[in-house]
# Entry
Amino acid sequence: MAWIRTVAQGEEEGDLRPLYQAAVKRAGKVFAIVRLMSPNPAVLEASMNLYRAIMFGPSPLSRRQREMMATVVSASNGCHY
# Structure
């Protein structure tokens, strides 16, 4: 099993700090999936931008449909997100 050293909430600095602050504002805490990308803030930022584009950007799918699809995929993958 691979282990990735992550940055704990409260220990972030530099480019990672505003990304963690945004995560707390959005969700009340920094979820593990966000911490997993903490060693590379540029990747974390790109990932969050992709997520926002998929979930909130222009699309033929409604916001409700997108959330339903995300829920089904997460459940199928055994993920609690």
Notes: The chain has one domain: 16-76. The mean pLDDT is 93. Residues 16-76 form one domain. Helices lie at 16-27, 32-36, 41-56, 63-76.
